[in-house]
Design goal:
Largest sheet: 7 strands, mixed
Distance between the termini: 32 Å
Radius of gyration: 21 Å
Helix content: 25-40%
CATH architecture of the largest domain: 3-Layer(aba) Sandwich
Strand content: 15-25%
Number of strands: 15
Structural class: alpha/beta
CATH superfamily of the largest domain: Type I PLP-dependent aspartate aminotransferase-like (Major domain)
CATH topology of the largest domain: Aspartate Aminotransferase, domain 2
Shape: globular
CATH class of the largest domain: Alpha Beta
Length: 420
């Protein structure tokens, strides 16, 4: 968390109460894929404000709710008939996806992955993997949750050779079903196609396909948490399209409404019909203002080539990060899928010891010099970028120059310290 107090923002820039201008590479932690105050979003919000700002879906449906659901369904990579429910937050989407899976399968167990982050409510906190700060002091946690390793190739200790890693084939998941819990007791496996808070970990495509295959063979539902990966961040509308999987349920949030509170679960119609009427929902779910913002986001994706911009941006991020890795031994790994990119900082490439303090120093330098960046990773040593997908070239280049300067400054400090 920074000490910046924001005053106003536009596009890829944010200005604080002291008048300092920042290039925003944080994107509201992935909620602003089309930037601050996009005109299509602002127009839709204003139009809706002049008509209706809240009614509660349990009392009456609204046209924006229906339109968002109708426009989402064909975009989600789930075959066949689909249904959607709109909610408030990413955590609510995950909570409800678990409820839907349990209601449909009549099973209780849920499998998640090491390094996962799914939210801060009781169930989503249980599913999340990082103890501090997300879980310490908040137990006991939800029962019937099982955890297996994720295919984190940079830190894999399981493979004898690079081309024979058991994680690629999701063997720990199969082993879980063989030795710890009968798969007939498991309602769902929930997975991020790319781990977000866990460090932008991009697994080999065969890993996710193997997870899907194992689920299918045991009648276990597959839930894709696309809250951070969705809406173009990986170069496709959803990351599942990039890796070739078709989940039974898909969770959406963050950039769905350009920063306003709105999330969704989209799934196979028969699965979505599992819960009895009235068992899902909430007072504020599908608020018309948030739905109006989502319609503006969908308008922008349809008319402005946002996905093409995301793919070009992804190429630029990969090129910039690879060049920085050549310059600074501090960068142990570069990970990107589309415009979802990160660098993992280590004290030595051989030992791969997480460079937590150095990561913080890089962030502080960037903040002091006009660039908003955030970290991630199990050891807080990953710098991730979530700039708007339509960021202007100059803002992108200026931002990367500040990051380059920050890495150089930390490198120089470390070299001086080693000499002393």
């Amino acid at each position: 968390m920074t000490k910046i107090v924001a005053d106003h923002a536009e596009g890829s820039y944010l200005v604080d109460v002291d008048g300092r201008r920042f290039i925003d590479f944080s994107g509201g932690i992935g909620t602003l894929n089309i930037g601050h105050r996009h005109p299509a979003v602002m127009t839709r919000i204003q139009e809706q404000l002049d008509k209706l700002h809240h009614v509660a879906i349990g009392v009456a449906l609204t046209e924006p709710y229906i339109e968002v659901a109708e426009r989402l369904l064909p975009l989600v990579p789930i075959p066949g008939d689909k249904k959607a429910i709109l909610l408030n937050s990413g955590a609510e989407a995950v909570e409800n996806a678990i409820k839907i899976a349990r209601a449909y399968t009549k099973r209780r167990g849920v499998v998640c992955f090491e390094g996962a982050f799914h939210g801060r409510t009781l169930m989503t906190m249980t599913l999340s993997s990082k103890a501090n700060p997300y879980k310490t002091g908040f137990g006991p946690f939800a029962p019937d949750v099982y955890r297996v390793p994720y295919a984190y190739c940079y830190r894999c200790s399981h493979a004898d050779t690079p081309d024979r890693c058991p994680l690629h084939a999701a063997e720990p998941l199969q082993r879980l079903f063989s030795v710890e819990v009968d798969p007939s007791e498991i309602a769902a496996v929930i997975v991020e196609p790319v781990q977000g808070e866990g460090g932008f970990v991009v697994p080999p495509p065969e890993f996710l396909r193997a997870v899907q295959s194992i689920c299918r063979s045991h009648g276990v539902l597959l839930i894709a948490d696309e809250i951070q990966t969705g809406f173009g961040r990986t170069g496709k509308m959803f990351a599942c399209e990039s890796v070739g999987i078709e989940p039974d349920l898909l969770c959406i949030g963050k950039s769905l409404a350009d920063g306003l509170p709105l999330s969704a679960v989209v799934g196979r119609a028969e699965v979505m019909d599992g819960p009895v009427p009235g068992s899902l929902g909430g007072t504020y779910t599908g608020n018309p203002i948030s739905c109006a913002a989502a319609l503006g986001v969908l308008d922008a994706f349809e008319t402005e080539g946002i996905l093409d911009s995301a793919q070009r941006l992804g190429n630029a991020i990969r090129a910039h990060f690879s060049a920085l890795q050549q310059k600074y031994a501090l960068i142990g790994d570069v990970r990107t899928l589309g415009a979802m990119g990160a660098i993992e900082l280590v004290r030595s490439r051989k030992g791969r010891e997480p460079a937590k303090d150095e990561t913080q120093a890089v962030l502080e330098y960037c903040h002091a010099h006009g660039l908003l960046l955030i970290k991630a990773g199990m050891w807080d040593n990953v710098i991730r970028v979530l700039m708007p997908l339509n960021i202007p070239d100059k803002a992108l280049e200026d931002g990367f120059q500040i990051l380059d300067n920050a890495l150089a400054n930390v490198h120089l400090h470390n070299s001086h310290h080693e000499r002393v």
